[in-house]
Amino acid sequence: MKEELTTIRQTSLKEIEAVTSESELYQVKSRYLGRSGTITQIVKNLKNIPAEERSTIGKEANDLKKDLTAAIDNALQNIKQSKKLEHIEKPSIDVTLPGRKQLLGNKHPITLVTDQITQVFTTLGFEIVEGPEIELDFFNFEALNIPKDHPARDMHDTFYVTEEVMLRTHTSPVQIRTMQKTKPPLKIICPGKVYRCDSDVSHTPMFHQIEGLMVDTNITFGDLKGLLTIFIHTIFDENTALRFRPSFFPFTEPSAEVDIQCVMCRGAGCRVCSGTGWIEILGCGLVNPKVFANAGYNPDEITGLAFGLGVERTAMLKYGVNDIRLFFENDYRFLSQF
Ligand code: DAH
How many domains does the chain have? Predict the structure, then answer.
């Protein structure tokens, strides 16, 4: 029995020494010290050993048990330590992987186009002026020669706060507000939000407009044509054909709408231009003398040109966007394309 214990001691310690992982170590441990492990069985069977040998064998077996437990604990510490070292020496970060991309913000297409348009005019000496979005009937309609019962109000149905106070339906009221405060001559460009009771693929209840007003002596329709031609050739391209089509606005006389050659089909006729080859882009005209009078200017001394355009519409034509609602959905996949 004594020799047997010596052999067990030798082999078990050798096995512990050879172990390289925690799981292997636990296997060795259970083989010797587990419930049916070799040493556990020997201790259990001590009662069958002749009495004279029992105490020495018992002592020997217990010593072996203690030594093995200590050796196993020690081996476990070593394995844990070398694992730690391995982790430090061989970091789990793969420096060859591409880095995580930081998403950069960019200007919203409406802001972008507004900037582009206002820049064309500021380069030509126009000043940027803004006005309130909650507007009085007087500035939004009355002073612009649109009295209460005028049919032009039909196209300008809006959100009313009271009968006299509403969300402005266009940026034209800024013309009146500026003329009331400033002596002529005047060159202003007025970007901003406007509101109408409209909602479909090409209309949203809120959209953006840019208003232009130039007041001086001897302004002619030729000035208007020249100015808007420069504008369209800068925003689209120099070869874009345009035409002035007679129209009506209560605040200009004469009035016109400007069409540009369809940007989709280049004038051949398609779905976007309803087969005509032309697309309406803005309204304009020479300031109606009544508007000057309403704003406190003397219509006999002064002349002026005015125009107004929708920013969403311009952006849609410029970038080939076919649904206006895309501008307001804030989908990063859409916005990041500009
Ligand atoms: N205010 C007009 C609208 O919202 C656009 C417009 C047309 C403005 C002609 C002008 C203009 O200044 O002369 O429909």
Answer: 2
